Amino acid sequence: MPGKDPEPLREVTGAVGEVLVEKSGVLEPVKAITRALAAGIDAMFYPPLVTVCQWAASKIEEKGLRRAAIETLPFGLLRGILEGGAMEQDENMRERWANLLTNAVTEGGVGVRRAFPGILSELEPADALLLDELAETLRTLDPPILDVRQATIAQRTSLDNLVRLELVRVASQFPGEFAEA
Fold first, then answer.
1. Backbone torsion region of residue 75, taken as left when φ is above 0, otherwise alpha when ψ lies between -120 and 50, otherwise beta
2. pLDDT tens for residues 117-154?
3. Tens digit of pLDDT for each residue in 152-181?
4. Which long-range contacts (CB under 8 A, 24 or more apart) does 110-117 make?
5. What span, in angstroms and rounded, lies between the C-alpha atoms of 76 and 126?
6. Per-residue pLDDT tens over the stretch 55-107
7. What is the DSSP letter of 134?
8. Angle formed by the axes of helices 125-140 and 91-105, to 10°?
9. Could you give the CA distance from residue 34 to residue 79 in angstroms, rounded to a whole number?
10. DSSP letters of 105-120?
11. Half-sphere exposure of 159 (CA within 13 A, CB side)
12. The whole model's pTM is what?
C-alpha cells in the first residue's frame, strides 16, 4: 500500500494468523518437534544454536531455496545437526553446521545422510580445512591423484582422521608414502 504504514496491517494479519494456527492446530507437529529438540539441548547452548540457525536461514533466503516441511525430516538427523551446531565452539565449524542444516532443510539440495552430523562432530577444524583443500585440489586434477608426501605433521594427523572417517582413501605407490587421496 503506497504511502501507508504497513505496520498496523502486519499486526492485524499476524494476530489473525496466530488465531488460525492456534484454532486449527496446523503447527502442532512443528511445535512438538521444536519442544522435543529443545528438551535435548541445554540452555547454555542456545546462543550458538541461534547463530547456526540464523546463518542457515540467511543462506536459504539469499539463494532463494525452498524449505522442506520440518515434519518430513528424520528427527534424529535434525536433532544431531542442532545439537552438534549448538555445542561447536569454533566459528568456522559453526559455519559448516549451518551449511549442513541448510542442506537438510531445503528441497532438492544435497542429500544429507544421518551419518553426517556424527562425522562432522568428529572433525577438528584443521581436518575440515584439509578436507576443503583436498576437495578443491581434486576438482582441478585429472585423474584425481594428489601427492601428499610434502604434508606437514599436522596435515598428516588430519589426513589420518579423514581416512579413519572414510572421507578420503589413501593408496600408496611406494611403501610408507602417501600417493593418492
1. alpha
2. 999 999 999 999 988 888 887 777 665 555 667 777 77
3. 777 778 888 888 888 877 766 554 544 444
4. 112/77, 112/81, 113/77, 114/74, 114/76, 114/77, 114/80, 116/77, 116/80, 116/81, 117/77, 117/80, 117/81, 117/83, 117/84
5. 27
6. 998 888 888 888 877 777 888 888 899 999 999 999 999 999 999 999 888 87
7. H
8. 60
9. 10
10. HBTTSPPPPTTHHHHH
11. 22
12. 0.65
Coil, helix or strand at residue 45: helix
Q: pLDDT per residue over 6-32, tens digit each?
A: 566 556 555 665 665 566 665 566 677
Q: Are 82 and 49 in contact (CB under 8 A)?
A: yes
80 Cβ contact partners less than 8 Å away, ≥ 6 residues apart: 114, 116, 117, 118, 121
Q: What is the dihedral of CA 83, 48, 66, 106, to 10 degrees?
A: -30
Grid coordinates representing 65? 531455496
Q: Which three cell numbers stand for residue 117?
A: 552430523
Measure the CA–CA gap between 90 and 75, rounded to whole angstroms: 25
CA distance 116 to 167: 11
Q: For residue 29, is the peptide bond before it cis, meaning its omega torsion is within 30 degrees of 0?
A: no
